[in-house]
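Crash report, auto-generated. Payload:
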Amino acid sequence: MSRRDFLKTVGAGILALLLSAAVDAGGKPEQHLTEAMFWRRVE
Amino acid sequence: MEKIVQCELCPNGCILGPGQRSRCRTRTNSDGKLYSLVYGRPCAVHVDPIEKKPFFHFLPGTTAFSIATAGCVLACKFCQNWQISQSKPEDTDTYDLPPAKVISNALAYRCASIAYTYTEPTVFYEYMYDTALAARKERVKNTMHSCGYINERPLRTLSKYLDAANIDLKAFTEDFYSNVCGGRLKPVLDSLVILKEEGIWLEITNLVIPTLNDDAKKIREMCRWIVDKLGRDVPLHFSRFFPHYRLTNLPPTPIETLESARKTALDAGVRFAYIGNIRHEAENTYCPNCKKVLIERTGYVVKGNHVVNGKCRYCNTAIPGVWN
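Recovered output after restart:
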């Protein structure tokens, strides 16, 4: 493998890793808070 | 003074200090108010046959747009969806699916109903309620498969927009609920009576687990209670257990046990008793009068339906259910 091909392969690998991390992160929820309907304050 | 709140959604009645999380993992006290963490964020979204829920007397042969979030009010050792039911919302991958998107998807996929299912819909009550309300406006029906572990006020409030419920009656002893599920039987029985009073189409599922809830005497007692309190027309599904989660030490339910439970139900006066999670002729619906096969099923597939306008095609006997 030439130096150029080697660098191409490494570059593609890094790009794939970054993209896969981005997809994973997109699937994880941020914390969304919606007030519950049935609850009470405890005095 | 500390800002302590109590959740009034289910019989667990979690009392939470600031920052604490409910037992179902989906509610938190933030600065003295109780919040849901899962609104519009389902972790499971599928188009399923309605038979999968299972509903056998509710729009057979149609599909249900099915959603669930993480979390559960119980902790059943045999849970078949434990990977999501026993998880925190932040530990699952989720979809951004607000109620309006659920309805538009259900319509796009030509689903006759939306099913709140897989985990325990009570934990995503606000999301379910808003979606059900919007679905009713679009004439899409609402169904839920629930463990019935919910307080009276939220259940009656939801019932205004609910069309059908399948409730897991997991056993007929307090010991089982306490030791195997981490809950109580009484609130589940109360929910069944409330749903019946509210006129919701009701079906019941009983997962028969070898050695834990397969006692013939208790099954008979359960069937008699159903007939006495809910009537003869509530379909009862005896479902086959497979080793899951924390009960991998037990074998699958023997077919004979399921057949015996079904016979017990029929003898007790239940008119529609089924066997599920296994291919069996007791997946079919039989006319209680002429005994002919009315709805022929193989798994989740309806192969023939001879209920016409809610009646048996052969002898004109009325068959309870929601058919149109």
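Post-recovery validation: Chain A has one helix and two strands.
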